Amino acid sequence: MTTLLHIECSPRKQRSASLEIARHFISRYQQNAPVTEVVTLDLWSLDLPEFDGPVMDAKYAGLSGTALTEEQAFAWKALKALAAHLHQADVLVFSVPLWNFAVPYKLKHFIDVVSQKDVLFEFSPEHGLRGLLHDKTAINVYARGMDFSTPDAQAMDFQKPYMDAWLGFIGVTDVHSLYVEKTILGPQVDQASRQYSTEQAFALADRLA
After folding, report:
1. Which residues does residue 131 pair with via DSSP β-bridges, in sequence order?
2. Please, are residues 197 and 178 in contact by the beta-carbon 8 Å criterion?
3. CB 58, CB 68: distance < 8 Å
4. CA 21 to CA 191: how far, in whole Å?
5. Is residue 8 part of a domain?
6. Could you tell me which residue, 68 or 27, shows the higher pLDDT?
7. What is the pTM (predicted TM-score) of this model?
8. Residue 177 clears pLDDT 90, i.e. is over it
9. Is 137 inside a domain boundary?
10. φ and ψ at 22, to 5 degrees?
11. What is the tally of structural domains in the chain?
12. What is the pLDDT of residues 82-96, one digit of tens each?
């Protein structure tokens, strides 16, 4: 059975373009692969751990080979439980709106917490840094208010490059992108963009499932 993990990165549940297209993709994927289990992580309803205190101490204790205290071990266990969702999934779907040319702070918080040595990557003098997520497929659904197809606009895009770099770092190389653009240029433009992106989402689900 395939496990699909949807990580919701937008707080706009009713009007979110990224969530809308991601859900269209997931629905079509499930139609093609009915035994798929869908797991959803809404980053806005999760109590994401702060990366300070015991969990920060646990990180550096692990890097130095020092045994964890009971408090540190408890904090590190919570972090690993969050990262386990990524390990257990076969397909990763991220619905990512563009905020100030980059990703929402909740997604950055999630990435900062789970991207740890021996959790999502490993390091050795022989091989250097290597990601620990293998045989995964990622679909990133990007929503942008304006048109980012021009070279000048692309220079301001720290959304897709960041996601591609992070996924590659943790070992995910089969990455697909869907876009909804110009969502603040009026209802007609917004609707046309969403319709086009929905069709692209259906086509991608048909190829992958």
Report:
1. 121
2. yes
3. yes
4. 12
5. yes
6. 27
7. 0.94
8. yes
9. yes
10. -60, -40
11. 1
12. 999 999 999 999 999
Instruction: Please give the average per-residue pLDDT across 66-71, as a whole number.
Output: 90
Cα distances (Å, whole numbers) of residue 88 to 39, 105, 125, 141 = 10, 24, 28, 21
Cβ-contact 75, 49 below 8 angstroms: yes
CATH number, domain of 125, equals 3.40.50.360
pLDDT score recorded for residue 115: 97
Question: What digits encode the pLDDT tens for the residues 140-176?
Answer: 999 998 888 888 878 888 999 999 999 999 999 999 9
For helices 105-114 and 70-88, the axis angle rounded to 10 degrees is: 110
Residue carrying the six token digits 């702060």: 50
Tokens 């289990």 sit at which residue? Answer: 37
Q: How many CA atoms lie within 13 A of 177 on its CB side?
A: 15
- As a whole number of angstroms, the distance between CA 30 and CA 35 comes to 7
Sequence letter at residue 207: R
Alpha-carbon distance 101 to 67, whole Å?
A: 41
- pLDDT, averaged across the chain: 94
Residue 66 belongs to some domain of the structure:
no
Classify residue 60: in a domain, yes or no.
Answer: no
Question: Per-residue pLDDT for 14 more than 90?
Answer: no
Q: Which residue range(s) make up the domain with 108?
A: 3-47+84-208
Radius of gyration of the chain (CA): 18
